[in-house]
């Protein structure tokens, strides 16, 4: 499956970063590589892209009334708060699965790269270095 495959699309509310911290409705599109957050429902404006590689974890999931609240923690320890209506296939679960999937793919990739590097003889290694941008 390619990164362009949409895993989930729909509405998600994001807590604003300012002092008032009120909830703003966003249209979100989750792919195998990133969570794209559009400020409007028509997706006319440019999306803010949150790459899965910059997400450390999905944290403190809590169900209150009709909402599920969760926090995305980024690799530079920024916390972004979201909430969604607690439907069956809730955003936090789908994002968590996508994140695990991404980390597995990356681990396999890293492992293959390491194996390639180890199996390359010194001569090949130098040639490869010369070819590198």
UniProtKB/TrEMBL annotation:
The keyword Phosphoprotein does not apply. It comes from the Eukaryota. It is found in: Cytoplasm; Membrane. Keywords: Cytoplasm, Membrane. InterPro entries: PH-like_dom_sf (IPR011993), PH_domain (IPR001849), PHLA1/2/3 (IPR042832). GO terms for biological process: positive regulation of apoptotic process. It holds the Pfam family PH. One of its GO terms (cellular component) is cytoplasm. GO terms for molecular function: phosphatidylinositol phosphate binding. Residues 111-133 are annotated as: Disordered. Residues 5-100 form the PH domain. SMART domains: PH (SM00233). SUPFAM superfamilies: PH domain-like. It is a peripheral membrane protein. Belongs to the PHLDA2 family. Plays a role in regulating placenta growth. May act via its PH domain that competes with other PH domain-containing proteins, thereby preventing their binding to membrane lipids. This is Pleckstrin homology-like domain family A member 2. It comes from Neogobius melanostomus (round goby).
């Amino acid at each position: 499956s390619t990164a362009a495959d949409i895993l989930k699309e729909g509405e998600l509310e994001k807590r604003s970063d300012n002092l008032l911290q009120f909830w703003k409705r966003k249209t979100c599109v989750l792919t195998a590589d990133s969570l794209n957050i559009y400020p409007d429902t028509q997706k006319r404006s440019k999306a803010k892209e949150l790459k899965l590689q910059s997400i450390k974890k999905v944290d403190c999931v809590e169900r209150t009334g009709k909402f599920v609240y969760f926090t995305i923690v980024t690799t530079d320890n920024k916390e972004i708060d979201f909430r969604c209506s607690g439907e069956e296939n809730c955003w936090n679960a789908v994002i968590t699965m996508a994140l695990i999937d991404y980390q597995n793919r990356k681990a396999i990739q890293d492992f293959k790269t390491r194996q390639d590097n180890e199996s390359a003889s010194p001569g090949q290694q130098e040639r490869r270095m010369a070819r590198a941008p």
